[in-house]
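Let us practice reading a record.
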Amino acid sequence: MQAVPAGKIKPAIAVVDCGIVGTAIGKLLGDAGYCISGVATSNLETARKASEATGSERFSDSPWDVTRGANIVFITTPDDLIESTCARISEHSGFEKNAVVIHCSGALSSDILSSARDSGAVVASIHPLQSFASVDQAIRLVPGSFCTVEGDRDALPIARQIVADLCGIILEIKPEKKTLYHAAAVAASNYLVTLIHLALELNKAAGLPGNTSFNALIPLIRGTLNNIGAKGIPNALTGPIARGDVATVTAHIKAIEKDAPKVLLLYKCLGLYTVDLAKAKGTLNKDAADKLVALLGF
C-alpha cells in the first residue's frame, strides 16, 4: 500500500478485541485518516465504548459482523486466543478476499493466521516494542516506538505503511525468531520490574521505607541507563563484581542469608551472569573471577 495522497480515503480497518493495544491502534489509525469501520469484543458494552474511543462506524460482539467488508483486520486478542478467533471468523466467512489480517503478538508469528490465508486473505504481524498500562499511555507511547513486522510478501507493504502512519519505527524480523525477540522484550521490561522489586526487598530488609527506597533508587537506575547508552555493555558495568571485590560480595551474601533469604538465589544468579560481563570488560582478573564463581554458585 503506497502512501495515500491528501484527499484520498485510506483503507477500512476492523479491530477485533479492543483491549489496550487494539483500542490505541484503532484511535491512532483513525486519527491518521483510516476508516475504523467496526470494532468487536465479546462484551457488547465494552465494544460500544471501544467504538466511541476509536470513532468506528459500528460495534458488535460477533467479530465477523465487523470484519466483513474491511480491507484490514487487526486481531488484538491475548496470544492464546488469536488462532482460534481467526479460525472462527474464517468459519463465518468474515474475511474479504485479499484483505490483510494482522495480529499484534510479540511471541507468535503471522503463521497462526493460516485460516485467514485459507479464506483468501494475506497475513502479517505488527508488534509495538513497548509496555502499555493503559489506553492513554499506549496512545502516547506507540509513536516513536520500534514495531516489529513480519508476514506474507503481499501483506508487508501494508504493514510497513501502517507502522509509518502510527509514527513508529519499522523493525523487520524473521518469523521463526520472534520467540527469542519476545524473550528479550520480557527480559528488558518484565524482568526489570522484577529486578527493581529485588532492590526494594533488600532495602526493606535494611529498614528503608518503600517510597523513600524507590525514590532513592530512581536516579541510580536512570544514571545506569545513561551510562549504557553512552558507553555500551560491558563498559557501563560498575560495582563490586566489576572490581573483583570478593569481600563485599561475601558480605552481601551473608547479610541476605540472614535478613532476606528468599531473594538469595536471584542475587546469586545475577551475580554469576555479571562475572562474565566483568571478564568481558577486562576489569576482573582470573583469580577474583574464580573466587566469585565459587562464592555465587548454587
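A brief commentary: Confidence is low (pLDDT under 50) at residues 1-7.
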